[in-house]
Design goal:
Pfam family, one: LysM
Radius of gyration: 15 Å
InterPro entries: LysM (IPR018392), LysM_dom_sf (IPR036779)
CATH class: Alpha Beta
Strand order of the largest sheet: 1-2
Protein name: LysM peptidoglycan-binding domain-containing protein
Number of strands: 2
Distance between the termini: 55 Å
Structural class: alpha+beta
Organism: Megasphaera hominis
Length: 92
Protein backbone atom coordinates (compact mmCIF):
# COMPACT_ATOMS: atom_id res chain seq x y z
CA UNK A 1 0.00 0.00 0.00
CA UNK A 2 2.83 2.39 0.80
CA UNK A 3 4.31 1.70 -2.63
CA UNK A 4 1.02 2.58 -4.31
CA UNK A 5 0.78 5.85 -2.39
CA UNK A 6 4.37 6.74 -3.24
CA UNK A 7 3.82 5.93 -6.91
CA UNK A 8 0.69 8.07 -6.98
CA UNK A 9 2.47 10.97 -5.28
CA UNK A 10 5.37 10.88 -7.73
CA UNK A 11 3.12 10.81 -10.80
CA UNK A 12 1.02 13.66 -9.45
CA UNK A 13 4.12 15.79 -9.05
CA UNK A 14 4.96 15.28 -12.70
CA UNK A 15 8.09 13.33 -11.95
CA UNK A 16 8.35 10.81 -14.76
CA UNK A 17 11.27 8.91 -16.13
CA UNK A 18 12.03 9.77 -19.75
CA UNK A 19 13.35 6.67 -21.46
CA UNK A 20 13.93 8.27 -24.84
CA UNK A 21 15.89 11.36 -23.86
CA UNK A 22 18.83 12.42 -25.93
CA UNK A 23 21.17 15.31 -25.30
CA UNK A 24 21.78 17.77 -28.11
CA UNK A 25 24.67 20.18 -27.61
CA UNK A 26 23.96 23.71 -28.78
CA UNK A 27 26.06 26.85 -28.79
CA UNK A 28 24.19 29.81 -27.32
CA UNK A 29 23.81 32.72 -29.72
CA UNK A 30 23.26 36.37 -28.83
CA UNK A 31 19.66 36.81 -27.68
CA UNK A 32 18.98 33.13 -26.86
CA UNK A 33 17.16 32.40 -23.62
CA UNK A 34 16.61 29.16 -21.76
CA UNK A 35 12.85 29.62 -22.26
CA UNK A 36 13.29 30.00 -26.03
CA UNK A 37 15.52 26.94 -26.22
CA UNK A 38 13.10 24.92 -24.08
CA UNK A 39 10.18 26.01 -26.28
CA UNK A 40 11.90 24.46 -29.29
CA UNK A 41 12.92 21.32 -27.39
CA UNK A 42 9.47 20.64 -25.90
CA UNK A 43 7.09 18.46 -27.85
CA UNK A 44 3.33 19.04 -27.80
CA UNK A 45 2.94 16.73 -24.78
CA UNK A 46 5.57 18.42 -22.63
CA UNK A 47 5.24 21.52 -20.47
CA UNK A 48 7.93 24.05 -21.42
CA UNK A 49 8.55 24.76 -17.71
CA UNK A 50 9.58 21.14 -17.25
CA UNK A 51 12.08 21.42 -20.11
CA UNK A 52 13.46 24.67 -18.63
CA UNK A 53 14.08 22.83 -15.36
CA UNK A 54 15.67 19.89 -17.21
CA UNK A 55 18.04 22.24 -19.05
CA UNK A 56 18.98 24.00 -15.80
CA UNK A 57 19.61 20.70 -13.99
CA UNK A 58 21.47 19.05 -16.88
CA UNK A 59 23.83 22.00 -17.23
CA UNK A 60 24.25 22.59 -13.48
CA UNK A 61 22.92 26.14 -13.69
CA UNK A 62 21.24 28.19 -10.99
CA UNK A 63 17.67 29.28 -11.69
CA UNK A 64 18.77 32.93 -11.77
CA UNK A 65 21.95 32.32 -13.78
CA UNK A 66 22.20 33.95 -17.19
CA UNK A 67 23.41 32.10 -20.26
CA UNK A 68 25.84 33.84 -22.61
CA UNK A 69 26.80 33.75 -26.30
CA UNK A 70 29.36 31.06 -27.04
CA UNK A 71 28.32 28.91 -24.11
CA UNK A 72 27.62 25.26 -24.95
CA UNK A 73 24.54 23.72 -23.36
CA UNK A 74 23.37 20.12 -23.39
CA UNK A 75 19.67 20.13 -24.22
CA UNK A 76 17.65 17.08 -23.12
CA UNK A 77 15.14 16.21 -25.83
CA UNK A 78 13.01 13.32 -26.93
CA UNK A 79 14.22 11.51 -30.02
CA UNK A 80 11.47 13.11 -32.09
CA UNK A 81 12.68 16.66 -31.27
CA UNK A 82 16.46 16.17 -31.58
CA UNK A 83 16.73 17.14 -35.28
CA UNK A 84 14.49 20.17 -34.79
CA UNK A 85 16.71 21.44 -31.97
CA UNK A 86 19.88 20.83 -34.02
CA UNK A 87 18.48 22.67 -37.03
CA UNK A 88 17.05 25.58 -35.06
CA UNK A 89 20.22 26.23 -33.10
CA UNK A 90 22.79 25.45 -35.79
CA UNK A 91 25.51 28.07 -35.88
CA UNK A 92 24.84 30.66 -38.60
Amino acid sequence: MLTAILLLAVTQLGMTYHTNDQYVPIRVQNGDTIWQIASVAADNKTDVRSVVNDIIETNHLNHDQQIYPGQTLQIPVTASRADTVRQTFAAP
